[in-house]
Design a protein that fits this description.
111 residues; 69% helix
């Protein structure tokens, strides 16, 4: 996977604030900070989109099954996202545990 370079213009005050934030929170550069912001935005919007899809599926709206090729493409896109993650193994396991607990609570019928 190759890297693409972009040019970004922003107000000086925003650049200064971004630079200060980057330094305060241990980013090597403003570029690294901005890359992290873009990555998080893309991931979070996908999560929100998937939640909406889940709600539609529960309601029986826009339900579509994946064929094998589409399912493989979807899994590969998730793998690509996870490769770029800065989570360490311990953080990933903790996040997985929290997701499992949340799903269990959501889908376990009350007694």
């Amino acid at each position: 996977m190759g890297l693409k370079q972009i040019s970004l213009s922003m107000p000086e005050t925003l650049f200064k604030a971004s630079s200060d934030y980057s330094e305060e929170f241990g980013y090597r550069s403003v570029q690294e900070f901005i890359l992290e912001l873009v990555r998080n935005k893309v991931v979070l919007e996908r999560i929100e989109r998937y939640k909406e899809i889940e709600n539609q599926m529960k309601a029986g709206k826009n339900v579509r099954k994946f064929n094998q090729k589409e399912a493989a493409r979807y899994v590969n896109s998730l793998k690509a996202i996870s490769k770029k993650s800065k989570l360490n193994d311990k953080d990933a396991l903790e996040l997985g545990r929290k997701i499992n607990e949340s799903l269990h609570a959501r889908y376990t019928p009350e007694k």
